[in-house]
Write a structure and sequence with these properties.
The chain is of the alpha+beta class. The protein has 2 helices and 5 strands, in the order ββββαβα.
Length: 85
């Protein structure tokens, strides 16, 4: 069972919202997820990404691999968390 950390789309047409989820690699994009660990709203001002970095670390330690998009977003979230701390 290969796990991925990826975005799952919800919302309406022309109003995208995304959930950051841990899901099986072979499941559909909007299919059943193992756990929801954050949200992404690309149309919002300010900080569009909210993510639980401790859960990301947990799932990566268990073997989950982020997609290339999520890898970049996680790096950005870590930098923002370090700047505020």
């Amino acid at each position: 069972m290969a796990l991925k950390i990826r975005l799952s789309r919800f919302g309406t047409k022309n109003e995208p919202h995304y959930r950051v989820v841990v899901a099986e690699e072979r499941s559909r994009r909007d299919g059943d997820a193992v756990e929801q660990i954050g949200a992404y709203n690309p149309r919002s001002k300010g900080n569009p990404l909210t993510i639980k970095l401790d859960r990301v670390d947990y799932w990566v330690s268990k073997g989950a691999k982020p997609t290339s998009t999520m890898h970049a977003m996680i790096k950005r979230a870590r930098r923002a968390a370090a700047a505020t701390a």
